[in-house]
Amino acid sequence: GILGPVIRAEVDDVIQVHFKNLASRPYSLHAHGLFYEKSSEGSIYDDESTAWFKEDDAVQPNNSYIYVWYANRRSGPVQPGAACRSWIYYSDLHLEKDINSGLIGPILICQK
């Protein structure tokens, strides 16, 4: 399948993803290997958080959301001499259906 665009950042960068859902059903963005606050988690589950913290869980069609992710040292390369470390992002609303539909993409966190 076709992957989503590569998100590339350097260690200590702040990544802002401006997600506009032009599809016919809700989607989210969830990142592995990066740090984020609850409002940018992009995963739906019963955690008793307030509605404001759930806006990122399911971005409705024709709506937008800004996800903010942090690439700290633990997100970056761990092997000596490695330039980058790879992670993924994906829609976590309907995990299997979304990933099998190609709603997944690479994240590269590189040394400065």
Description:
The model has no long low-confidence stretch (mean pLDDT 91). The protein has one helix spanning 95-100; strands at 7-10, 14-20, 30-31, 35-36, 64-70, 84-90, 104-110. The relative contact order is 0.34. The chain has a single domain (7-110), classed as Cupredoxins -  blue copper proteins (Immunoglobulin-like, Sandwich), CATH 2.60.40. The strands form two sheets. It has a four-stranded mixed sheet. It has a three-stranded antiparallel sheet with strand order 2-5-4, with no helix packed on it. It starts with 6 loop residues before the first strand and ends with a strand. It is built from one helix and seven strands. It has 112 residues and is mostly beta strands. Helices cover 5% and strands 32% of the residues. It holds the Pfam family Cu-oxidase_3. Belongs to the multicopper oxidase family. This is FA5 factor. GO terms for molecular function: copper ion binding; signaling receptor activity. Residues 2-110 form the Plastocyanin-like domain.
